[in-house]
């Protein structure tokens, strides 16, 4: 799972990246609103951690702009402001959750997992899609109650499709999500991983829309 951190405090930014890495997340870290260029594809991120007080503007404004653009990526607001109105403004402005500094990193990780569950329309830590059960934290998959042995890449691929189960994930977006900090996985290799995954969970569960992308059938 790949996250975007927008936080100007150097020590906190470093600590967040280290904590996320220890939990198996990858992340990119920006320190100013100006660093959020138009070239950034927000669909590449599973969640955004957004500070409200930035050197060159308000995180509130960035949050509202994203929601006005109909970006659906989960956003957790981080701020030292602990007033009720600030929390209400953040949630009403489109934030999915709100944490007040200083916070325990373990709590933030838990909130990241919670907003991801809601985004994937899952009600518990175990994601259920038909007869498939996905355990994101344990990197386990079961089909009709039986364990399915997946490689790291196959599990990553299944989880990315599961985030948008029932919707098409573009081939280019999927290849980038598999290698968020490097060159996208080439399409030939992607097809090999998809073929292996289909063989293990059932070909009918992953639908190809030729020239567009792939969909995990709900």
TrEMBL record:
One of its GO terms (molecular function) is transcription cis-regulatory region binding. This is Response regulator. Pfam families: Response_reg, Trans_reg_C. The modification 4-aspartylphosphate is found at residue 51. GO terms for cellular component: cytosol; protein-DNA complex. Residues 2-116 form the Response regulatory domain. The keyword DNA-binding applies. InterPro entries: CheY-like_superfamily (IPR011006), OmpR/PhoB-type_DNA-bd (IPR001867), Sig_transdc_resp-reg_receiver (IPR001789), WalR-like (IPR039420), WH-like_DNA-bd_sf (IPR036388). The keyword Iron does not apply. Residues 124-218 form the OmpR/PhoB-type domain. Coiled coil: none annotated. Residues 124-218 bind DNA.
């Amino acid at each position: 799972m790949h996250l975007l951190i927008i936080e100007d405090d150097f020590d906190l930014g470093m600590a967040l990246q280290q904590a996320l890495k220890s939990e198996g997340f990858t992340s990119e870290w920006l320190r100013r609103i100006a660093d959020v260029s138009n070239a950034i594809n927000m669909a590449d991120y599973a969640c955004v951690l957004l500070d409200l007080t930035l050197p060159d503007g308000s995180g509130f404004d960035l949050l509202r702009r994203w929601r006005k653009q109909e970006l659906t990526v989960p956003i957790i607001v981080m701020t030292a402001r602990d007033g009720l109105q600030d929390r209400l403004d953040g949630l009403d402005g489109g934030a999915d959750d709100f944490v007040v500094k200083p916070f325990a990193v373990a709590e933030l990780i838990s909130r990241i997992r919670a907003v991801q569950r809601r985004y994937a329309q899952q009600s518990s830590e175990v994601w259920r899609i038909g007869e498939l059960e996905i355990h994101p934290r344990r990197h386990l998959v079961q089909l009709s109650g039986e364990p399915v042995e997946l490689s790291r890449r196959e599990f990553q691929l299944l989880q990315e499709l599961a985030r948008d189960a029932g919707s098409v994930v573009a081939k280019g977006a999927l290849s980038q999500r598999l290698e968020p900090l490097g060159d996208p996985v080439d399409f030939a290799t992607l097809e090999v991983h998809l073929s292996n995954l289909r063989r293990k969970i059932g070909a009918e569960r992953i639908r190809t829309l030729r020239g567009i992308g792939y969909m995990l059938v709900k």
